[in-house]
Amino acid sequence: MYIKIEKILFVIKFWFVFLIVISNNTFGWWSAPFPTPFDPSTHFSLSQNVIDSVAVECPDMGPNYFGNDVRNITSGVLDDTKSHGGNAQANDGPALQFWTDALLEYKNFNFLGVETPITKEGAYLKIGRVVHLTEDMSVPAHVINILHGIELFHPPWLTDNFEANASGNYSLIGVIPVRLIDPKDPLEVKKANYDNTFAIVTNAPWTQYWQVGDPNGQYTGGTDTFPRNLGENAAADALVALQLANARNYAAGALIAMSKSLPPLIKDFEIEHLYSIPAVITPNMSGKISFKVYENRKDTVTIFMTIDNAKGEAIMDPSYGTGKSETLKSGTVLPWEDSFSYTWDGKLANGQYPSNGLHTLYMHVVDFDGNDSTVATHDFFYGTPQVLTCLPYGNYTSYPNTMTVGFDRPMDTHSPSITIDKNANLLYQQWIANNEAVSASITGLADDETYTITVP
User: Fold this and answer.
1) Could you say which of 10, 69, 75, 77 has the lowest number of CB atoms within 10 Å?
2) Cis peptide leading into residue 278 (ω within 30°)
3) How far apart are CA 88 and CA 103, in angstroms?
4) Cα distance between residue 148 and residue 198, in whole Å
């Protein structure tokens, strides 16, 4: 009995919240399940067709990666309102802001984050909101700005007849993504859908149902007389089918445009060195350059590595100045990714070596679509070091098993640490400030062994 009561209370709470949320809302197509929460909404069905159609060309937008998340965020009454900027009475929404935020969160590796007071919504959820608004631009009431939707306790629950006709009679005609001249601007695709719908419904014979007002449009004669059910009017049925197809096609075009605009990502860019930070690179002491590259659409990227600026002298090979082509592997975070590692002694592509002192290694990646990653940088010190070899009881030893070495030469402006090692095993390391005389001591040395002291 207790379990049954709990179930009943849950159902009552669900429908109470459901009705409150959708009260006086504005919907493009039909965002909530209709006629029950267990049937897919029109937005859900549209978006499912869209992600299926672009999955091969844009694998990140397909169901194997983030497509289902894009689809899910386009439907549901809560997400509908949020896609319209939190305004339940808005027919459009902040698509530009969503897309701008999506690019920023993508570069921060935030793909599916949930928005809280201290965290940002993930990139692909923002992308889903742009898809939602693009689909909305095929709905006449949205384009000519008629406030519509659900009015609590005032049936019929779905007050826009065009949306009601579509919600109960969804059929897949086929998705042919709309590709504009500039395929990387999803907002242009959304605008093109708006213009197309506006041109249709503001001309005969559709002016019998919709007319443009100022500032809002309205149903002709003040009443929505568009045929509500499939089969009432063949021309109306054809318009619904056309606009459903347009919603799919333009949304697919916008999704492709967004996928093609996402840049490659770089992570964990390092110059590793045994002795010091920043790394000391010399012909006799190489460092290891390592990094990871992630890409959302195509497996081919070009890698650039130069010193002192992004257009500086290439390292190792001339191709790192013009772009060295690499093929990534199938990934888990994004569709394509790979790890790279190179041993580098400081030699440049022209066969020369950097001047002594502090330098910066610049690295960036360009993808198949021409998107450039954020430039990654890492400092390193290049210089031929002084190397002193001594025995523990030599001139630098003050008492048995202890070596004390003093250096009083002026150090360079950017001086890395001195190091003391035995057979490349680091025993001691100390950072040297500018022009500082240093005394380095180390205990526990073995008799008759050779130790190497390295000073930049």
Assistant:
1) 10
2) yes
3) 26
4) 17
State the amino acid at position 4 in one-letter form. K
Percent of the chain with pLDDT over 70: 69
What sign does the dihedral 163-165-167-173 (CA atoms) show? negative
**pLDDT tens column, 312-341:** 999 999 999 999 999 999 999 999 999 999
Token readout for 22 is 């959708």
Q: DSSP for 118-182, please give it.
A: SSPPPHHHHHHHHHHHHHHTT-HHHHTT---S--TTSSSSS--HHHHHHHTS-----------SS
The two tokens of residue 94 are: 């902040």
Domains in the chain (CATH in brackets) are 2-261 (1.10.575), 265-382 (2.60.40.770), 386-455 (2.60.40)
Question: pLDDT tens for residues 346-355?
Answer: 999 999 999 8
The whole-number pLDDT of residue 57 equals 96
The residue among 171, 142, 195 whose CA lies nearest residue 244 is: 171
- Cis amide leading into 400 (omega within 30): no
Q: What angle do CA 85, 86, 87 make, to 5 degrees?
A: 90
Token readout for 433 is 């400030």
Mean pLDDT, rounded, of the chain: 79
What does the alpha-carbon distance between residue 335 and residue 323 come to, in Å, rounded to a whole number?
22
The string of DSSP codes covering 12-72 is HHHHHHHHHHHTT---SS--S-SSSTTS--HHHHHHHHHHHHHTTT-GGGSTTTTHHHHHH
Is 424 strand, coil or helix?
coil
The span from the CA of 41 to the CA of 30, in Å, is: 6
Tracing tokens 């844009």 back to the chain, one arrives at 58
pTM of the predicted protein model: 0.78
pLDDT in tens, 112-150: 999 989 999 999 999 999 999 999 999 999 999 887 765
Q: How confident is the model at residue 272 (pLDDT cuts 50, 70, 90)?
A: confident
Q: How far is 405 from 439, CA to CA, in rounded Å?
A: 6
Distance CA 170, CA 75 (A): 15
Residues 399-418: pLDDT tens digits?
Answer: 344 444 444 333 343 344 55
